[in-house]
Amino acid sequence: EQDVTEYRKTLAIRVSGFDVPKPIKSFADCGFSNVLTNAIAKQGYERPTAIQCQALPIALSGRDIIGIAKTGSGKTAAFVLPMIVHIMDQPELKKEEGPIGIICAPTRELAHQIYLEAKKFAKPHGIRVSAVYGGMSKHEQFKELKAGCEIVVCTPGRLIDMLKMKALTMLRTTYLVLDEADRMFDLGFEPQIRSIVGQIRPDRQTLLFSATMPRKVERLARESLTDPVRVTVGEIG
Ligand code: ADP
Ligand code: MG
To answer: How many CB atoms are located within 10 Å of the residue 215 CB?
Structure first.
């Protein structure tokens, strides 16, 4: 225990919650498949970043997470890698319809970056990723979603449009990521986020990431996450 406490200090990480899994020190501690391990190496990721050290084992254990960390800390892989494992654990992957994982981000640019990173880890597994944000016509997007996918990376407004058009169902969605939640709120997406969260089955795993935790985001987290572990990076004096 002492060893773990010391290690968390060196990561400048603060963790709160019940029965929190120990942080990992290397990607090899995650028990990833060879395919995923190779994809990580291909990305040039040699060792996990601080948030990844703590968030990966928590997410892999199926727990909800509130992740508070600045830009550039490596949050994307912290939620995408466990999402890939979560999807590969589904017994009837290709038989049912609709995404298993949904990632919401505030802007088209941020969603696009996540989309590119998610594809690098998803593709070697035959997992399909769809981008649901401005840039593609709604008609094209509708067709792509109808063809099927396991992961959707979206901005909240465009996902709502696609849900209204019945381009997808979220019946089998069990892994939800709200990335840069504070910025999504700043941009006025609270109603859309609440609508999306409200339409996804409550037994999902939910991960919320934010650089700051204003009261509104705190309230969303309290209402939408189950027994979350809170991981804060970079604020230990
Ligand atoms: P955040 O979402 O916290 O701003 P990103 O997930 O976008 O951070 O990652 C920031 C940068 O760090 C990206 O270029 C990403 O490819 C890189 N990166 C992420 N994890 C690692 C790692 N373990 N080792 C090296 N580079 C990494
Ligand atoms: Mg990010």
So the answer is: 7
